[in-house]
Each structure stands twice: as structure tokens, then as C-alpha cells.
């Protein structure tokens, strides 16, 4: 009972902090930066990086794009710069997906550790910040809707999987995840996209529907990727900053992994419109 209460309290604080920050563009920028620093600290322990450089790389990349967007995203080179980082981030994430199907652990040689901290983790927080400010205007409903879809997917994947799950999804990586749970999470995310589209006017229902599929698929893959990292070093949680939940990275792994793909989809929408 005490564990459930602790988990509920810290879960409420986390959600309240996120939703509360959405009322101000600068608050969101600062919050995602703080989340990024904490997540990098946890990830450094997982992949055994003892240098300070990941913090420097993240800070430079994050505030470079944040300041550039604030001054004028229409300045020459902004789109090109984001496209380069986007391609590199998706490239790294696709390799991590490939590693899920390998019986071996995720290779962690020196250069790959640099790539992971830069384009798996650091750049994802940049994209979360850019998603909130997509279209040259601050649109908190898009980033909030994305988080809601992640929460719905995780919640119903757990509920459906626990009650009806039989076929394992990636048993060696995450024994509790099932195919039925994944389908349940995906289904309820799609249903939720209708209500998000109804109560917001940023995207159409069809666009939110596609976004819900992207988030469910890549969010689940992101959860599995982090689970494989943790299994390699025999730890249950990435950290202890959120009692009852583990580390912040444990709460953000899905949205972190999905962020580049969400941003890519929004860029495609912007291009075709």
C-alpha cells in the first residue's frame, strides 16, 4: 500500500510539473533541458561513460537550436541543420531497433557511446522542444497530446497484457510485454486520438490517428531498447529519482525514442500543406 501511495504521489508530481510548464513557452524549454540533463546522468551510468562531455554536447545542441528558433527559425540554415540532426537521430534509432533482434548485447564501443548520447538521447530532447514550437508558433497541445498518447499506450498495454496476454513480444528483453498488450495499447491510443482531435484544433483526426500509431510503435520500441540496455548491466531501473517509478529515463524512454519520428511526421505535414 505504501509503495502504491509513493508511486501515485511522484507520478502526480511528474504529470503536474509537465502540464504546468505547458502554460509558458520558456518554462517548457527549461523543463526539457532539466529532463535532458537528468536523463543523460542516468544513461551515462547505464553505458558507463565517466566523462563530462555528454552534458556539454547536450547543452550546446539544445540551446543552439532553442536560441536559433527563438530568434528566427526562418533564418538561412535552420531547416537544413534540423534535417541533418533528424537524419542522424533516426539512423541511430534504426540501428538500435536492429540490435533488439540480435542475441548479443548492444555494442557499446567508444564511438557508438558518443553517437548514443548525442543522437539517441540529446537530440530527442531538442525535438521535443521543437515539437512544442512547431510551425513557428508555440503549440502546447501537440506535445501534450503526444505525451497523453504515450501514457494511454503504456497503461492499456499493461492492462490488456496482464489480463489477456499470452504471446510474448520480446521475451528475453522484457518478459512481461506481450503481443496482445501491444495491440491493446495501440487500439486505445487510436481511440484517444479521436478525443484529442476533437478538443484541439491543431491537427485533424486522421493526422492524430497516424501520430498515435507512430507513438505506439516507436514508443514501445523505445521502451524495449532501454530494457535491453538495463538488462545488459543487470539493473532494474535507470535511476532512483522517482520513488516507485525508478529513474526519469524509465518514464521518458518511449517519448524520447519516438520524438524524432514525431517531428519527421510533422515536417512531412508541413511540407505537403
From TrEMBL:
Position of the signal peptide: none
GO cellular component: plasma membrane
Pfam families: CTP_transf_1 (PF01148)
GO biological process: CDP-diacylglycerol biosynthetic process
Keywords linked to the UniProt accession: Cell membrane, Lipid biosynthesis, Lipid metabolism, Membrane, Nucleotidyltransferase, Phospholipid biosynthesis, Phospholipid metabolism, Transferase, Transmembrane, Transmembrane helix
Top-level taxon: Bacteria
Pathway: Phospholipid metabolism; CDP-diacylglycerol biosynthesis; CDP-diacylglycerol from sn-glycerol 3-phosphate: step 3/3; Lipid metabolism
Catalytic class of the enzyme: transferase
EC number(s) on file: 2.7.7.41
Record family assignment: Belongs to the CDS family.
Protein name: Phosphatidate cytidylyltransferase
Lineage of the species this protein comes from: Bacteria, Pseudomonadati, Bacteroidota, Flavobacteriia, Flavobacteriales
Amino acid at each position: 500500500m505504501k509503495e502504491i501511495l509513493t508511486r501515485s504521489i511522484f507520478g502526480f508530481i511528474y504529470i503536474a510539473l509537465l502540464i504546468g510548464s505547458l502554460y509558458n513557452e520558456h518554462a517548457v524549454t527549461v523543463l526539457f533541458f532539466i529532463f535532458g540533463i537528468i536523463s543523460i546522468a542516468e544513461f551515462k551510468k547505464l553505458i558507463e561513460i565517466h566523462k563530462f562531455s555528454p552534458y556539454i554536447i547536450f547543452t550546446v545542441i539544445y540551446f543552439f537550436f532553442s536560441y536559433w528558433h527563438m530568434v528566427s527559425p526562418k533564418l538561412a540554415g535552420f531547416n537544413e541543420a534540423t534535417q541533418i540532426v533528424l537524419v542522424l537521430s533516426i539512423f541511430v534509432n534504426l540501428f538500435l531497433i536492429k540490435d533488439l533482434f540480435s542475441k548479443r548485447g548492444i555494442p557499446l564501443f567508444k564511438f557508438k557511446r558518443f553517437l548514443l548520447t548525442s543522437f539517441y538521447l540529446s537530440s530527442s530532447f531538442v525535438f521535443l522542444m521543437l515539437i512544442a514550437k512547431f510551425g513557428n508558433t508555440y503549440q502546447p497541445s501537440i506535445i501534450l497530446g503526444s505525451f497523453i498518447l504515450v501514457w494511454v499506450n503504456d497503461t492499456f498495454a499493461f492492462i490488456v497484457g496482464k489480463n489477456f496476454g499470452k504471446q510474448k513480444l520480446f521475451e528475453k528483453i522484457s518478459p512481461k510485454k506481450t503481443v496482445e498488450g501491444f495491440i491493446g495499447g495501440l487500439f486505445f491510443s487510436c481511440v484517444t486520438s479521436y478525443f484529442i482531435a476533437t478538443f484541439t484544433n491543431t491537427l485533424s483526426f486522421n493526422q492524430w490517428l497516424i501520430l498515435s500509431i507512430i507513438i505506439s510503435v516507436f514508443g514501445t520500441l523505445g521502451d524495449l531498447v532501454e530494457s535491453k540496455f538495463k538488462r545488459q548491466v543487470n539493473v532494474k531501473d535507470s535511476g532512483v529519482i522517482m520513488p516507485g517509478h525508478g529513474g526519469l529515463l524509465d518514464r521518458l524512454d518511449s517519448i524520447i525514442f519516438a520524438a524524432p519520428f514525431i517531428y519527421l511526421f510533422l515536417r512531412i505535414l508541413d511540407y505537403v500543406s
